[in-house]
Design goal:
Layout: H1 2-15, E1 34-37, H2 39-44, E2 48-51, E3 53-57, E4 60-69, E5 74-77, E6 83-88, E7 95-96, E8 101-106, H3 108-139, H4 145-171, E9 183-187, E10 192-197, E11 204-205, E12 218-221, E13 225-233, E14 245-250, E15 258-261, E16 264-265, E17 275-283, E18 294-300, E19 304-310, E20 315-317, E21 320-329, E22 335-341, E23 343-344, E24 352-357, E25 364-368, H5 370-374
Antiparallel strand pairs: 1-22, 2-25, 3-19, 4-13, 4-18, 5-12, 6-8, 6-11, 7-10, 8-9, 10-12, 13-17, 14-15, 14-18, 16-17, 19-24, 20-21, 21-22, 21-25, 23-24
Helix pairs in contact: 3-4
């Protein structure tokens, strides 16, 4: 009791918001922890109270997230080779098909790869001829077995080298190139829209095979369907499941909530934020929503029955939480209130807060006029 009285006294001195006593000249002194209002003060003050009782609470989990591309409908295009951009063939906003050329890049690396492929073809032809010749000589008993074995080994090496060189050329979209060329065609891997383009004619690009840090040159994707990725706190994990309905609101389009359902909840927590990611698909037929937009997310969950009070009934001062309990009207018309330390679950979203300690069912708490009551020192 002494500790509670000290907290109340210090709060009243520092902020003028805790419990106190009225002037002894106007009325009898209120007991410690209570505030009394005279009949006149009671009539002049608009005070609303509500009975503490059980309610369905926690029917919504509030969190935040952001919109992003659907991973299945986006491709980030890099150049595999070093080179210089000689021509751009598409513009942002343009639709492209898989395999369509986006830009031309002059790349000595491509010339080297094609040259290797042609050299490998020539080496295979020579190895094949030598193998055939040694086989004929051996069958005519005019050649040694070791010469035949060596020719066969060289032939197999030439086949492997030819296959390697052709595979590398094929990976550079030049499987049937005639001659040796340095003109590399950067192609789109998917159907979609050119979302971004980060290069211009004459730009020197770093290739993914060049050993340096390659820069994304194009983003190809679809905007008619996006993903929402949101953070789910550890305390809410057991309440949210795949299929839980939700509403999202973005700042750019307030008052237009978008409804969806949870499609996936991560099986692990981020060690830094202690949150798990959830994902849902957001239709975007008018393409008003953009990737990287932030969103407020309200997830519908099963509410729980608990003793609860309105959020407006709780006053927080520093790290202390209080509620004013209406004790009724005395015989002389004085209205009495008790300043009660309480514990509530403030992590629950909504207008009602579950009561952990400090209040009992049937007690009346002040939901309007708390500031007036606290000012009666």
């Amino acid at each position: 009791m002494k500790a509670a009285r000290s907290i109340l006294t210090l709060t009243a001195l520092g902020f003028g918001l805790a419990c106190g006593h009225r002037d002894a000249k106007e009325a009898p002194v209120a007991p410690s922890g209570e505030i009394w209002l005279t009949p006149t003060q009671n009539q002049q003050t608009r005070i609303a109270v509500e009975t503490v009782s059980e309610h369905a609470v926690g029917g919504t989990v509030q969190t935040v997230g952001k919109l992003t591309f659907d991973d299945r409908k986006v491709s980030h295009v890099f150049s595999p080779l070093n080179g210089r951009v000689t021509r751009l063939l598409v513009d942002p906003g343009q639709r492209v098909k898989a395999g369509q050329t986006l830009a031309l890049i002059d790349s000595p690396d491509l010339g080297s790869a094609l040259s290797d492929a042609r050299k490998a073809d020539a080496a295979l032809v020579a190895a094949d001829r030598e193998f055939s010749r040694q086989k004929e000589l051996f069958e005519a008993h005019a050649g040694a077995r070791r010469d035949l074995d060596a020719a066969e080994a060289n032939y197999r090496v030439a086949v492997a080298e030819r296959d390697r060189a052709q595979q590398r050329a094929s990976s550079l979209y030049a499987p049937n190139a005639q001659g040796v060329s340095q003109g590399f065609q950067l192609k789109s891997p998917i159907n979609g829209e050119v979302i971004t383009r980060t290069l211009n004619p004459g730009t020197e690009v770093q290739g993914q095979y060049g050993g340096g840090t390659a820069v994304e040159l194009f983003t190809i994707g679809e905007l008619d369907q996006l993903w929402l990725l949101a953070d789910l706190y550890e305390v809410d994990l057991f309440r949210v499941a795949v299929g839980s309905p939700l509403e999202i609101t973005v700042t750019g389009y307030p008052g237009n909530p978008i409804r969806a359902k949870v499609e996936w909840v991560s099986g692990t927590l981020d060690p830094a934020t202690r949150t798990a990611k959830l994902r849902c698909t957001i239709p975007n037929p008018r393409r008003l929503l953009k990737p990287e937009m932030f969103a407020q997310v309200a997830i519908k969950v099963e509410p729980a029955q608990a003793l609860a009070v309105p959020r407006s009934a709780v006053t927080r001062i520093g790290n202390q939480t209080f509620a004013y309990v209406d004790l009724g009207v005395a015989a002389d018309g004085t209205r009495r209130f008790s300043c009660r330390p309480v514990q509530v679950d403030e992590q629950i979203s909504g207008d009602l807060l579950p009561v952990k300690a400090g209040l009992k069912a049937g007690e009346a708490v002040v939901t309007q006029g708390s500031m007036v009551i606290s000012g009666q020192n």
